[in-house]
Amino acid sequence: MKRFIGFIKKEFYHIFRDKRSLFILFGMPIAQIMLFGFAITNEINNVDIAILDKSKDATTIEIINKISSSKYFSVEQLINNESEIEPVFKKGKVKAVLIFEKDFSKKLVKENNATLQIITDATDPNTANTISNYTNSILQKYQQEINKNIKIPYQIIPKSHMVFNPELKSVFMFVPGVMTIILMLVSAMMTSISITREKELGTMEILLVSPLKPFQVIIGKVVPYIFLSIINAIVIVLLSIFVFKMPVQGSLFLLAFESVLFIITSLSLGILISTLSSTQQTAMMISLMGLMLPTILLSGFIFPISSMPLPLQIISNIIPAKWFIIILKGIMLKGVGISFIWKETSFLLLMTMIFIAISVKKYKIRLE
Amino acid sequence: MKTIRYIIQKEFKQIFRNKGMLPIIFIMPLLQLVILSNAATFEIKNIKFSYIDHDNTSFSRALIDKFKASSYFNVVTDFPSEKIASSEMLKGNVDVILEIPHYFERDLSKDKKTDLSVIINAIDGAAAGVENVYINQIVRSFNKNAIANLMQPSDKKYNVKTIDSIPSFWYNETLNYKTYMVPGILVLLVTMITLFLSGMNIVREKEIGTIEQMNVTPIKKHQFIIGKLFPFWIIGFGLLTIGLILAKVIFNVPMIGNLALIYFFTAIYLLVVLGMGFFISNFTDTQQQAMFISWFFIVIFILMSGLFTPIESMPQWAQHLTDFNPIKYYVEVMRMVMLKGASFKDILPQFSIILTYAIVMNGLAVWSYKKIA
Amino acid sequence: MKQESIIQVENLTKKFNDFTAVNAISFNVKKGEIFGFLGANGAGKTTAMKMLIGISTPTSGNAHVAGYNVFKNPENIKKSIGYMSQKFALYDDLTVKENITFFGGIYGLSRKQIEVKRRLLVEELGLQDIANELVSSLPLGWKQKIAFSVALLHEPKIIFLDEPTGGVDPITRRQFWEMIYKTANNGTTVFVTTHYMDEAEYCDRVSIMVDGKIEALDTPKNLKKQFNAENMNDVFLKLARG
Predict the structure, then answer these.
(1) What is the extent of the structural domain holding A33?
(2) How far is C121 from chain B (nearest CA, A)?
(3) Number of domains in chain C
(4) Which of A48, B108, B111, B285 has a CA between 20 and 30 Å from the CA of residue B41?
(5) In chain A, % of residues over pLDDT 90
(6) CATH number of the domain that C170 lies in?
(7) What are the structural domains of chain B?
(8) Is the ipTM reported for this complex over the cut 0.90?
(9) Which chains touch C (3 or more CB pairs under 8 A)?
(10) CA B206 to each of CA A256, B43, B209, B371, C40: distance values in angstroms, whole numbers, following the listed order
(11) Contact: A312, B38; criterion CB under 8 Å
(12) Which residues span the domain enclosing C203?
């Protein structure tokens, strides 16, 4: 046991002596959460649009005013005919063109109906769709105004309650995701690299011929990183509470427990990667190339898993980050206790055990 | 020139000899391209819908049938009480709860007005907004039919002024996300592979000690750098080519613009990435440090490229930061050329920025590489 | 025995912040001799050598190697010297042949020259069976011998060897020194650092560095006489203990 503690001390020295890596390990997650917490949002704000107003009457001017005063749109330019639309889109700045038909007011008065054409640059389908939705809701409001003297009978009025996030803040959606991604990648990368580094430098053999048992060697290497990751997790949680005003509705204790569990899952994934690779280069490429995009895309961090094709929904189950994001949102935003997230928790536990089991097996084969 | 050829030869041999790396360089990115491009969709569908029907009349059931018929909603179940329903929402089993009040039908015909309560899980605010729009659409159309049926001669005639909007989605009529995502994800993969490989390359020789053997030879700095980076430049092109073929064959992504333009831009763009990798390599002592730094930048570049979330929505300061993000320009150009058929003149702004970037980055790389300590 | 000097060193000094690694050393190396450069670990051998081979700039003093100034013309020095170290010599993930081609190539040999040299080298060292093997699969002794020959490919005027026989068995060390003699006989100057005192006896002249200074420099015979010692090992111990 004494030997073991001595070994852990050595690992700590390694880490704390390399000031540059230490700075990277602590500085990067902070920089990233600050940056992404503010910058990543899929709300639409100030989208540049162009307007082709063929009638230029009181009504169209009023609607244009409403559109340009909304926070969603900023009217970038006015164009005079259809042939200008294509070049405007090709430049890439303007995302939509609104076309008011000729005699807009006249038709609205005479025929009770006028038409507005919304042409969107649908290379980005999400923005295109959202622009179309927002424009419609502005139009809808305008119609209510002009029709306010008319009472329509038999109205069914849906009253929507947005629970857990009444202001629809996208911070609530993305901060848990950013936390997860950073913890996952940093933890997995750190362990996989530090273990393969010893292999590559040949120092692993020295450790293995020492009286320490192989699992002690591995645990000894991992313990300092658990410690580092916990500090990282604490800093990230504090930032998200105080900077991004994330609530913690549930128990802080449960949050701490789940975070430690997730850190251990990520570290054991790192160990697994290190048993699969013989050089640092391979380990890094697996943990960077192999984990980064799948974790970002399949964890539900940005894109809703329920909209994905079924095979991908199934694959997403093996992404540990998916479960931790659910857990985080549950504890922080919904305020649920363990009885609501035991399933996710046991998935993480199970994955950790599988990662460790495979690593131990691989490790033994190598030793024989 | 001859010297450079020998270095290139050596680098290629070393890359292709490392059997563990080959699948990581060539198979993994392409596999990710094929699989992950399907994942990146903001389209909201399969919404987990549940309801509490207190009215339980043929009228209320007709409303629910409308939701059942909609392709957006996936009617999971009905709940007897609000309490059970909200517990299921806490568990994450349902996204939307529609609560139809007692006397829903009776109130509508008597009071000429009734409310419906809709509870939406809004953690994903954007999705919740869209779900709300869908729900309103269904209710409105249901309402329209109901009005037609319920209209009594005694009811006043009314004339509503309406403005119709006709949306048309250019370049991507069916709002196909893959068309949008495939070129972008391809960009990410090409960038990641080339940055990581070049970032690790020199520092690896430092760590093994081989760099010293190179430094005592009379090769010139630029020969060394060109020789080192050229293979990755080629690998970048290789990945791009295979990726474009997959994009065409598997995803049928339109390629309206000139492919030569894409290759031309890529040629310069890769110089930026490789120069950056080389620069990182020069400033670090171990592969570990080099990787952490490359990782830091690549995550920022990816998430702030406008690929997954729009740049216009970011706060002003963050938008200015994205001006330094090479991936942003590459993604823009790929989409502009492939999907909109942009010409060289259209991409000139992006091109000149990338060119400047390439000159600066490689200048820094040459400057920071010291043969003599 | 009057021969021209191929390495001239005057008051060469290298400081790292406050620490003086090499403290004003001066010596000459004659053309064609085997010059042993001895010293305990940390005495400053490697630092001194790095300045001479042009990968480290001296803090002060002066030195000429193969007629070129270490401040002004380090790149020209590199053309005239060969270098081999224990730490690294050949690329592990290339074959013997590929290593030869690569190093020949970057030293500017023509394709034909490389071809000829390679054939000669393979024959001389009896490498026929292993020429296409990866270097990583060879025993250390082989690697060192091949590395030495590779460092000589471009026929340098001087070859610098940094502890070339570290970790190698006695028989291979013997063979290695035979190669060194042969090289010196062909007129190439050999500048060698070593830990093995028996190897010091093989050198024409030996310098011994202690704490950044050269404390002794002469032929092994004279040194033994001067320090009244039986062998070089005793000379070294007497010097190192002060």
Answers:
(1) 2-39+170-367
(2) 19
(3) 1
(4) A48
(5) 25
(6) 3.40.50.300
(7) 2-40+174-368 (no CATH), 47-158 (3.40.1710.10)
(8) no
(9) B
(10) 41, 48, 5, 12, 25
(11) yes
(12) 33-44+82-89+151-240
